[in-house]
Amino acid sequence: MIRSAIIGCGSYTPEKVMKNSDFEGVVETSDEWIVQRTGIRERHIAADGETTADLGEKAARAALDDAGITVDDLDLIICATSTPNNTFPATAVEIQNRLGMHHGAAFDSQAVCSGFVFALTTADQYIKTGQAKRVLVIGAETFSRLLDWSDRSTCVLFGDGAGAVVVEGVEGEGSSADRGILTCHLRSDGAHKEKLYVDGGPSTTGTVGHLRMQGREVFRHAVGMITDVIEAAYAATGLSSADLDWFVPHQANRRIIDASARKLDIADEKVVITVDRHGNTSAASIPLALCEAVRDGRIKRGDLVLLEAMGGGFTWGAILLRW
Ligand code: UT7
User: Fold this and answer.
1) Which member of 44, 185, 210, 250 is catalytic?
2) Gap between the Cα atoms of 117 and 131, Å rounded
3) Domains 2-171 and 180-322 share a fold
4) Residue located nearest, by CA, to atom 29 of ligand 1
5) β-strand partners of 136
6) Phi, psi (rounded to 5 degrees) for 176
7) Does 2.40.50.100 match the CATH number of domain 180-322?
8) pTM of the model
9) Nearest Cα to 164, choosing from 98, 85, 92?
10) Where are the chain's structural domains?
11) What is the DSSP string of 20-35?
12) Per-residue pLDDT tens for 300-316?
């Protein structure tokens, strides 16, 4: 059978770093509160005029270089983002053009913080059905542009960045020893919309709007939803936490990550953490963390890797793959 293997990855974070202490004087908060409640110490913030497509393009070029291919070898680009450059065209199409690709197709995928998991799952479907041989999957966000900078309960949590992977169809035997994506599980439930949403949009206010969140409510649902979908991935493959080499969760809050890992019996040393330096970069958080752990040599060929995310919608999902 055909499996979708990640053959290259790349990432980019804006130069400007905003530390927790930089919020003091902006809103009533402290480094101590932010670190204790979230694990976040700093985040990257896009410069004036620096856009989601700028970040996504840089991550995409790095992923193509890492894979040792050019856009001529690609069939499809999917960009996961909730902060597109324009309402339309899709940011993926803009990046496609900047990369000099004028064949194949490109589109955006919008599942907020679960965006990368949804986009990678979509890429897997294209590859497994033979519709595409190689897909570039990008997660790129400028969440700083959606924040209400007077709301201390949200503005300290998010950051900007982008990560990308190149996925290629490879032959597998259909066993969990295969290289590539072994199983994908997506969920959504719009009954939770009010807990995490943006209060604007082209068809409602005609404005971009600001992110609004009932943080405690999101937190209350997060661990249950995350563990539920990971257990579905284990059930589909016959694998368990004991088989895992690396857990690369969505980086929203260190306490959510720790509680999920504890509930699933995943050892601390298998968990990849970047939330301390990136904050929550929504759809970019998983590819940013994944690329970091690949680049520094932690994730190696043959390792079993678990990806997981949960975010606005609510949307949530998990992917098990062998590197
Ligand atoms: O991808 C999914 C995206 N979202 C998330 O994953 C977020 C999930 N939720 C969370 O991470 C946490 O709920 C937060 C970090 C947002 C908040 O932590 P919490 O422990 O749930 O705090 P809380 O909302 O219950 O607030 C506790 C107190 C409140 O004050 P009172 O009412 O007890 O007097 C808040 O007003 O902390 C106050 N507070 C702050 N204090 C200092 C809220 N934000 C801040 C702040 N600095 N930045």
Assistant:
1) 250
2) 19
3) yes
4) 153
5) 77, 166
6) -75, 0
7) no
8) 0.98
9) 92
10) 2-171, 180-322
11) GGGGBTTBS--HHHHH
12) 999 999 999 999 999 99
